[in-house]
Design brief:
2 domains; globular; Diaminopimelate Epimerase, Chain A, domain 1; single chain
Length: about 280
Amino acid sequence: MTEILRYAAFTESPDGGNPAGVVLDASGLDDASMQRIAADVGYSETAFVTGANGDALDVRYFSPLAEVPFCGHATIATGVAWGERHGPGLLRLTTGGGLVELDVEAGTAALVSVEPRVELLEDLDELLAALGWTEEDLDPAFPPRVAFAGVFHPVLATSSERLAGLSYDFERLGALMAARSWTTIQLVTRVASHEFRSRNPFPPGGVVEDPATGAAAAAFGAYLRALGAVEPPARITIHQGDDMGRPSVLLVDIPEGADTGISVTGTAVPLPDGA
């Protein structure tokens, strides 16, 4: 019988963070079984450890609708769950998005992303239309881009009022994201020099919004470095999920060097079965 664990990542309370399913031994599961389990769990992603050799793990991620190359919050959840069974240490995860290092301590994990990159954003007009925004809603200090740190995330900066009043066309945005292979949209507002609020629409995963998005946080760290918006090495704090009633805190460490991975640290706590 497959053991399915449930954790909330980027929180110290079961009432916060982003829930993820975790299967620490999925070596006997085929693709259809993993997809079925992810759909039954119903969280935005479930992580499956399909192989383990010492500190080297093969990990796959499924949303309720499809497999995704990488998922940050499910990686943090997997690291904490693995550490509770096997103790702290440094893990090397082979994922669909590339090799990810994961430093696990008691109740906490820190991932280091694959080599990130930042590109110009195409289809800005369609993206704004799906969000119900105009270019006047954007913060000119943070130009729109697409950032990658395992998966692709458009980055749009706006006002706190526009972020708080987020309402978008689910079908229209989902179609655009599917065409562009975008995972979530990283919508941010700056509240202090190294502190941001974020919301992440996630129609490709079958959910309206993600309460904590580790992959987007890593991509955003790369975006800030590429634009010179912070001076590395730097740590920023991202608050996400407050508007959903699931507050989350993501710590993002941005090292020097344009090709170095971005580190995202978070806590995770187990959830009761059926939560």
